[in-house]
Design brief:
By secondary structure, the chain is an alpha/beta fold. Helix content is about 35%, strand content about 15%. It is built from eleven helices and twelve strands. Strands 2, 3, 4, 7, 8 and 9 form a six-stranded parallel β-sheet that branches. Strands 5-6-1-10 form a four-stranded mixed β-sheet, covered by helices on one side. Helix 4 packs parallel to helix 10 and helix 9 packs parallel to helix 10. The longest helix has 20 residues.
Length: about 325
């Protein structure tokens, strides 16, 4: 408590005591931040106003991969179409990228409000315990639903965060039962909106990689997303984890398909893919025993750029993709 000293005649000693207290008072105010000249909190590297301060959210309305730090490597667009990366043929080096979709559609959001889990903290804990780098393709709705988890993932150097659209709608014709279609003119906006939500949750530098919801796209979709300056990342190994509750089945499907440079498609949503975490605990040690090393997608793309080779959509017929998306395995649609 600060004591008030009145200035009455004959109280010279009290005035001297008050003067003596003033330096101490100034020190106390400085320690409490009262005389902060601007430095200490803003300089804290763990605090990023641009990523977490609600007052700054508007600055990300022109979201997109270039709004953060220097972008991860991408593949060049061709003929006005975004490049699509499936796997790296590389030099035969045994590297593989595990990727996980953090799905959240409007329907999922309603179910999450009722207590259903569309996150998977145990999976993340296992990846960290096993020291497995991974690429997470996050929807904007998922980042809005689980901002603390999104921030934790986005600030962990083990992971990189890609874009899976905002609301998990289809970017082509019929893709999956119940999946709403995104109008062609709104596709770029859907990507930008997702980047805005991801950064708002506290992910400072999402990578310029986009995964089409359901794995479905066509030539028109590639042209529509090209201005977003993203590389579309699909994958050559479909785990089927959203089609079964059997961890062994998921593990066997992955282990039977992996080859050097593979991109494995899995899910980080407990409700949709309850067996994923257990499957990963089997997949990782078995692939390591075979000599494989786990990397993020950015390393595979960097290898592809450096070697001038790899599988991209420009080398494949574009219009075939809506027929069988990446969320469909052996003729059975995932949820």
């Amino acid at each position: 408590m600060i004591q008030h000293f009145s200035q009455q005649p004959g109280t010279r000693a009290r005035r001297r005591a008050a003067s003596a207290l003033m330096p101490l008072l100034a020190l106390a105010l400085a320690a409490c931040g009262g005389t902060d000249d601007g430095g200490s909190r803003a300089a804290d590297p763990a605090i990023s106003p641009a990523a977490s301060d609600p007052a700054d959210h508007g600055r990300f309305e022109e979201a997109g991969p270039a709004a953060g730090a220097p972008a991860a490597p991408t593949l060049p667009a061709a003929d006005g179409r975004a490049a699509v990366f499936t796997r790296s043929t590389g030099d035969g080096d045994k590297v593989v990228a595990l990727t996980f979709n953090a799905d959240m559609s409007p329907e999922h959001a309603t179910r999450a409000a009722g207590g259903e889990r569309f996150d998977n903290p145990q999976l993340v804990a296992s990846l960290r315990k096993l020291n497995v780098p991974a690429t997470i393709f996050m929807t904007g709705r998922w980042a809005d639903e689980y901002p603390d988890q999104a921030r934790s993932l986005g600030r962990d150097p083990l992971f990189e965060i890609g874009n899976h659209s905002y609301g998990l709608g289809s970017f082509s014709g019929p893709c999956r039962a119940g999946m709403p279609r995104v109008d062609r003119g709104a596709m770029r906006q859907e990507i930008d909106r997702a980047y805005t939500a991801i950064r708002r949750a506290g992910v400072p530098d999402p990578v310029p990689y986009f995964r089409f919801p359901g794995g479905c796209f066509d030539d028109g979709a590639l042209r529509a997303v090209a201005p977003a300056r993203v590389t579309a990342v699909q994958g050559d190994v479909l785990s089927g984890d959203a089609s079964t509750r059997s961890a062994d089945r998921v593990a066997e499907q992955v282990l039977s398909q992996v080859k050097p440079g593979s991109v494995v498609v899995m899910h980080a949503t407990l409700s949709r893919a309850p067996a994923t975490e257990a499957a990963v605990r089997r997949i990782v040690p078995e692939l390591r025993a075979q000599g494989y090393r786990f990397v993020r997608v950015s390393e595979l793309i960097s290898r592809t750029r450096n070697e001038g080779r790899g599988q991209a959509a420009q080398d494949a017929p574009q219009e075939q993709h809506p027929v069988r998306g990446q969320d469909q395995v052996a003729g059975r649609e995932r949820e």
